[in-house]
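Hey L., structure's done. Input below.
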Amino acid sequence: MKILCVIENDGGILFNHRRVSRDRILNEKILEIVGNKKLFISPFSVSLFENKDNIIVDDDYLEHAGEYDYCFVEDKEILAYKDNINMFYLFHWNRHYPSDFSLDYQPSLDMHLTDSIEFVGSSHDNILLEVFEK
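Output:
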């Protein structure tokens, strides 16, 4: 599966059961990356994406996603699924936000960095996207 995740500078994803930030252009970039492939999200993430045919809302999406499917992760632990991940899109907010739930897997430990792109978001002046592959 292909994972998409957004973190702040210390790897945080959530604070007090809320996402640490959001950005309209980043969400558009995610949809551009996914194209017409399946994008699995949790019910928590529904408000970020338009209602499209290829978006699948599923509490257990990490269990159900296939090898070529995309999963947007912002409220799940993923370490247990690391052997199923063949590509990882890691977006960095490049800011420090308070967080109490962090990404529990570092793709740089067993994947190769294949691309690094910086872009300007709608609410963030500098967002870094790192793409890792097995």
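The longest strand covers residues 112-119. The chain has a mean pLDDT of 95.

-- N.
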